[in-house]
Amino acid sequence: MKSFEISILPGGKTVPVGPDHPLLLLAGPCALESGELGWRIAKEMKEICERLGISYVFKASFDKANRTSLDSFRGPGLRNGLRQLDRIRQEVGVPVVSDVHETSQMDLAADALDIIQIPAFLCRQTDLLVAAAKTGKTVNLKKGQFMSPWDMKHAVDKLRSAGCDRIILTERGASFGYNNLVVDMRSLPVMRSFGCPVIFDATHSVQLPGGMGGSSGGQREFIPTLSRAAMAAGIDGLFMEVHPDPDKALCDGPNSIPLDEVEPLLEQLLVVREAVRNII
């Protein structure tokens, strides 16, 4: 599997991604609740990752267009949200990633984001993939809950055919009956065989979609277990939804990890990663 570098920030700094490089971590709140909260999380996460030698990217959605209920919090919206993300990017000095749901959003998003993220529900949307590829940005393509890992090759081919050669694939669980997800660890090496770095979404994988009626539930107590298993299976990065007080989060609180629990977990995971690299 080839490695590549994500170009970030005006200074020309890059973040290498791949099996021979530091672990990549995409982490932040589900939705951007406020610029101040996002700034605080980004700053603390950057400090944690610098201590541990992890490459950090701040993640938050400017618009959660796929919430369960019409009344659910969606975020600050396209223009205001991108302004806040760009401020975090410049002031904290970290790259940023966010979901893009429509082709009409792509040009504005590409000006503010370092990584364009394609949501799991939209991973087969050809026009959206082509538009993302044409931005020239790195694309993080999340595997749909309804998709087999081997079928993701067709989505990867769409991006490559449109000129994108910097593709990250993210595993976030597969539908298992109603209101439940499971993770098939076989999907990680399968998707890695396409020549793309693969990251594991440790928090959406414990989500219970629609499990609370008008919103999704989650089982955050299983985040460490699944993260250790994914690290042992061989991955290039992690995706985590992080919040100082998940029980008060406006989006995906039940499957978010408390900010003060992140560093001890990452320390464990780096030990697992090093052990696996020594074996392989």
UniProtKB/TrEMBL annotation:
A single BP term in Gene Ontology: keto-3-deoxy-D-manno-octulosonic acid biosynthetic process
Keywords, ordered alphabetically: Cytoplasm, Lipopolysaccharide biosynthesis, Transferase
GN (gene name): kdsA
Pathway: Carbohydrate biosynthesis; 3-deoxy-D-manno-octulosonate biosynthesis; 3-deoxy-D-manno-octulosonate from D-ribulose 5-phosphate: step 2/3; Bacterial outer membrane biogenesis; lipopolysaccharide biosynthesis
Protein name: 2-dehydro-3-deoxyphosphooctonate aldolase
Organism, scientific name: Candidatus Electrothrix aarhusensis
Stored InterPro entries: Aldolase_TIM, DAHP1/KDSA, KDO8P_synthase
EC number: 2.5.1.55
Pfam families referenced in this protein's UniProt entry, alphabetically: DAHP_synth_1 (PF00793)
Chief location category: cytoplasm
HAMAP family: KDO8P_synth
GO molecular function, one term: 3-deoxy-8-phosphooctulonate synthase activity
Cytoplasm recorded as keyword: yes
